[in-house]
Structures are given as C-alpha cells and as structure tokens.
TrEMBL record:
ZnF (dksA C4-type) intervals: 86-110
InterPro entries, per database record: Znf_DskA_TraR, Znf_DskA_TraR_CS
Top-level taxon of the source organism: Bacteria
Keywords linked to the UniProt accession: Metal-binding, Zinc, Zinc-finger
Name listed for the protein in its UniProt record: Zinc finger DksA/TraR C4-type domain-containing protein
Entry GO MF terms: zinc ion binding
Lineage: Bacteria, Candidatus Daviesiibacteriota
Domain spans labelled Zinc finger DksA/TraR C4-type: 81-113
Annotated PROSITE patterns: ZF_DKSA_1, ZF_DKSA_2
Length: 116
C-alpha cells in the first residue's frame, strides 16, 4: 500500500467522521425525550410512542457512536502507521475492503468468522 492510498483513506475517514457526527446530532434533535427534557409534565397517554421513538433513536445513536469510535481509531492508527492491520489476527486487511469500509478494524475472514 502506498502513500496515495493512505491519503485517500484518510480523506474518506475524515468525511465519514463529519457525516456521522452530523447524523448523531440529527438523531438527538429527533428524540422527543431529549427535546422535551425541559418540558413540564407530559400529557398522559403520549408517553408510550415517545418511549418507543426514544428507544429506537437511542439504538441508532449507539450504532453511530460505535461507528464514530471506529473511525477515530482508524484515523489514529493512520497517524501511528498501524492502519490496515487486522485487530484480531494481525494480518493486513484487504485494500479493497478498506476502500469500501475505511473504518474497519478486522479483515474479511475474521469478520466472516465473527458474523457466524
Ligand atoms: Zn483478521
């Protein structure tokens, strides 16, 4: 893998990081529980959909936060020269996989094993 490849990956990661941060913000704004945090007592009977929506949005936010964490980790490993090595088996991650999913921390075969 050459310098250009890493520069491209870094670019992809930085763009993705920004996008995910914006998505997290949007999810927070959509959350009825969050935006009602300062509101006084809510009307009876309206809580159930709010709780449902909140649960769904909280799960979405969790996924996005996890993704953001992986992106940040990948960016750090780019700086330290450890980028592109599988966290599980230590082998090089396939460049095609990195281009598709630059934040990935494990190689194709480890991810296959994991999802089984
Ligand atoms: Zn691996």
């Amino acid at each position: 893998m050459n310098k250009n490849f890493f520069a491209k990956i870094q670019d992809l990661l930085l763009k993705k990081e920004k996008r995910v941060e914006e998505e997290i913000k949007a999810v927070e704004e959509d959350d009825p529980v969050m935006s009602d945090a300062l509101a006084e007592a809510t009307e009876p009977g309206t809580d159930s959909w709010k709780t449902d929506a909140h649960t769904q949005l909280a799960a979405m936010k969790q996924n996005l936060t996890d993704l953001l964490g992986r992106i940040k980790k990948a960016l750090v490993s780019l700086q330290t020269g450890k980028y592109g090595k599988c966290e599980t088996c230590g082998r090089a991650i396939e460049p095609a996989r990195l281009k598709l999913m630059p934040e990935t921390l494990i190689c194709m075969s480890c991810s296959k094993k994991k999802s089984k």
